[in-house]
Amino acid sequence: MSGDNNNPHQEKSFVKPVMEQPFAIGDKIFLVSAQWWNMWKDWVQYDLQSSPSSPVSEGVTTRPRTNSLTRGDRPGMIDNSSLCMDGTDDVLLRNLTEGYDFQYVPETAWERLHGLYGGAPVLEREVIALGKELRVELYPQMLKVSGSNESGETTEERRLWFSRHSKLVAVFTELCKQFEFEPTGQIQIWYTFDDPPNWQTMDAASLSSGAMTLDELMLPDGASVVIEQQVSTNPPQQQWPFQRRVRLSMGRQSWKDPARDSLKQGDQLDARTENAAFVPPQWYPATVLMAEADRVLLALRGAPKKQPSHATLLKNDGELTEVAIKCFDAWFEQYSNSDGQLDRDGLAKWVRKAAGSPCDRDDTRIDRTFTQLHRVEEQWLRKQDFHQFFKTAAATESSRINLWKNVEAMGWRRDLRLESDLSEEERALENGAIWVDRSAHNRMAVFRTHNAKYLKPEFRDFVKVQLEFDPKAQGRWVRANILERDWDIMMVTIEIQSAPPMGVAKKHTIPMESTLIREYNPTHSYTNHTSSNSSYGTSSSSYGGWGSRYNDTMGSPATPGAVGLSNLGNTCFMNSTLQCL
């Protein structure tokens, strides 16, 4: 560290004028925790307007911190860890507030303070223009970026930060610079935010044209991005190495042939039922839950669930069944005392739970129960008495109905079992899963080939040149042409016919099994998306939805001392009212 550690007046005289200067576009601004900032203000008597005090010498005891009019102790190193999420030194907590959680400090003031005190983490932000206002972008976009080599292997991941309003062309140029690629048409950007990853791509032509911003791409913080360069020396099918490696590494996961490929947990396929519970038998999309040597347990999506059957309460001789005794014994042990007796208080607690109505020890229902079981004198019940009570209740239809209501109120199932007692297999079977023998090839098929709810098999052959595409997964389809089919990696390159919706590239290379494409229907009508204010995308005036999706993205106004609520669409009158409260 440098500088005079014992001259708060010099620190104040340098920093305060800088703090009072207005911000300009592109200024670098640093965040300092409010706790440290307030301690420093007390140390330098930041708000004191009178003549400065003498420098404090070492060994002189100062008063504890009260406010910035009285001198406090010299603060230690700058500690901004309270502003960051646990385990990180660069990811801010959400909903931080200027003045309460942190203080904005211009670059020159930060350099002076950091030089004197040191500390971490360093939290740098930038002043940007939002319409006619200047704002410090408190929550810029963080991307986890890797490059791809000629083998399709990715380099070590880098965490890069971009303004959310950056044009994609600027982001593209910076990524090329970071990984020393020429920003030409032989570049693809892959991005995903799913786990496992569901990679999507944009080519250089889409990235380097138009006014689309990073925010309009709608990537969350921490999205993974891979930049790859076309390898022209490779065969045509291998000129995009990362794309090929991703698809081949999937092992055609979504297109496994049960008659040929080995199956494991998580594999997807189509399965046909052959069970009395499913009439008539039909095909369902299925996921492998368990895989054994000779059979697999399949979860059928959309199949009806099986309701647990009612347990039998009484045997033919009128005695309680074993499963009923096990259930009622559990209740008795829950509400009886340490002597193994169910007294009036314990019985009242059980009635409150089982009947769902108020009940105390003097309730007439308690008196009636003790009278019925001949326990008026003892005023407590044994376990055998408890059994007798339920045996009597189960003997008649009317009282048996109430008994089943008691069972459900106690959190037990109709088969007199607790949900926690079920094994994973039992729970899956009740939710519609089925066991299928591995040799039953007529009951299992490649995913999305035998289910009428999916696309037709002939469409999956991609023999046609047109299809429908839902680029934002919002159920708003556009017409597209098929430009290229790659059967080795099961991907298709398409081009939207008309002007694409705002924030959507014209060309896309996507997996053949994607639900974002479907068979072309000439009777469908399509929306014209030539206007930037199309209802399909977000209005350009809202900067890609910052007001709704990232309402804490921008932070506070850049003008020192100016605070207030940011307008989210037409909320100016409401904001004015709230600020007057």
Textual characterization of the structure:
With 581 residues, the chain is of the alpha+beta class. The chain has helices at 8-19, 34-44, 107-117, 168-178, 204-207, 241-249, 322-335, 344-355, 364-372, 383-393, 397-409, 424-430, 457-460, 546-549, 572-580, and strands spanning 28-33, 78-79, 102-106, 119-120, 124-130, 133-136, 141-147, 158-162, 187-192, 200-203, 223-229, 268-272, 283-291, 295-300, 342-343, 380-381, 434-437, 444-446, 466-469, 478-486, 491-496, 507-511, 517-519. Strand 19 (466-469) and strand 20 form a beta hairpin. Helix 1 (8-19) runs antiparallel to helix 3 (107-117) and helix 7 (322-335) crosses helix 10. It is flat and about 90 Å long. The two termini are 46 Å apart.
| Cα-to-Cα separation, first versus last residue | 46 Å
Low-confidence stretches: 51-66, 454-459, 530-562
| Total beta strands | 23
- Counting DSSP H or I runs of 4 or more residues, the number of helices is 15
Biggest sheet: strand arrangement: 8-7-11-9-10
The radius of gyration over CA amounts to 35 Å
Structural class: alpha+beta
Overall form: flat
How helix-rich are the residues, as a percent range?
10-25%
Bin the strand percentage.
Answer: 15-25%
Instruction: Give a short account of the largest sheet.
Output: 5 strands, mixed
How is the topology of this model organized?
Blueprint: H1 8-19, E1 28-33, H2 34-44, E2 78-79, E3 102-106, H3 107-117, E4 119-120, E5 124-130, E6 133-136, E7 141-147, E8 158-162, H4 168-178, E9 187-192, E10 200-203, H5 204-207, E11 223-229, H6 241-249, E12 268-272, E13 283-291, E14 295-300, H7 322-335, E15 342-343, H8 344-355, H9 364-372, E16 380-381, H10 383-393, H11 397-409, H12 424-430, E17 434-437, E18 444-446, H13 457-460, E19 466-469, E20 478-486, E21 491-496, E22 507-511, E23 517-519, H14 546-549, H15 572-580
Parallel strand pairs: 2-4, 7-11
Antiparallel strand pairs: 1-3, 1-5, 5-6, 7-8, 9-10, 9-11, 12-13, 12-18, 13-14, 14-17, 15-16, 19-20, 19-23, 20-21, 21-22
Helix pairs in contact: 1-3, 7-10
